[in-house]
Amino acid sequence: MPTLATLTLAALLALAASTSAAAAEAGAVRVRTFTAEKPLYRAQQVATLVAVVENAGPADLEVAPKMTAPEGVRIGKTVAEPAKLPKGGQVRWTWEVEADRAVHADFALEVRSGDNVVAKAALAMEFLPAIEPVRSSYIPEPQPVKTSLLIGAHHCPLWEAEKPEMWDNILKHPERVPALGFYDQKSPEVSDWETKWAVEHGVSFFIYCWYRTSQGGPVQTMFSSAIHDGLQKSRFRKQMKYTIMWENQSRGKAGVADEKDLMENLLPYWMEHYFQDPSYLVVDNRPVLFIYRPEFLVQDLGGAEKVAAALEKMRQACKAKGFDGLTILGEYRGLDPNHLRLMKGLGLDYTFAYVWYVGGSPTPAEAIRSQMDQIRKTQAFGILPQVVTVSQAWSGWKDEGSIWKIPPREYETLLVKAKEFVATLPKDQLGGRMLLLDNWNEWGEGHYIAPYREYGFGYLDAVRKVFSDAAGPHVDLIPDDIGLGPYDAAFKARRP
Question: Whole-prediction pTM value?
Answer without folding.
Answer: 0.93
